[in-house]
Amino acid sequence: MGLFNRSKSATTTAAPVDPALTALTGEYTIDSAHSSIGFTVRHAMVTNVRGSFHEYEGKLVLNGSDPATSQASLDIKVASVDTGIADRDNHLRSADFFDAEQYPLMTFRSTHAEQLGGDKYRVTGDLTIKDVTRPIAIDLEFNGSATDPYGNERVGFEGGAELLRSEWGLTWNAALETGGVMVSDKVKLNLDISAIKSA
What we know:
Blueprint: H1 19-22, E1 26-30, E2 36-43, E3 47-53, E4 56-62, E5 71-77, E6 81-82, H2 86-93, E7 105-117, E8 120-129, E9 132-147, E10 153-164, E11 183-197
Antiparallel strand pairs: 1-4, 1-11, 2-3, 2-11, 3-6, 4-5, 5-7, 7-8, 8-9, 9-10, 10-11
């Protein structure tokens, strides 16, 4: 099923709309109790540290009649970062990294979406961390839709992206005696999203 299609020129014949897709049209709220937003970063050149954000709000607007115009937005409270080590989390909240006191939110606003094939999609948008906004592409897989036991209509996606944190001004590091640095520049983002259709 295609949720997002590539934009078509006026001279291109539009493909018929899937009735099942049309039924998904509407606004959805991300259910943070059944979703996760995490990241992985290489530490000391030899291992990976994983973390997540526990407080966030997001919306999806799915348009079954014109899927390429579907939209996504996400606001993450960076102070909710959790890597399982309190000292490390406090360092991430400090001005060395997120500066959570001055810049409490990390935001994403989609600008374009396209189908890559089957249930795989790419959503491009503007990611803002601190005072820097840059484009990022997020690859997602549509896991399907369902009605839960409480009558909520849900859709699910999972996927992620890679970024260089230095491009958003997160440049703190420490040199290792053996060469290399304490924290890698590359960060992997991991998303597992369940969203509930608004009444």
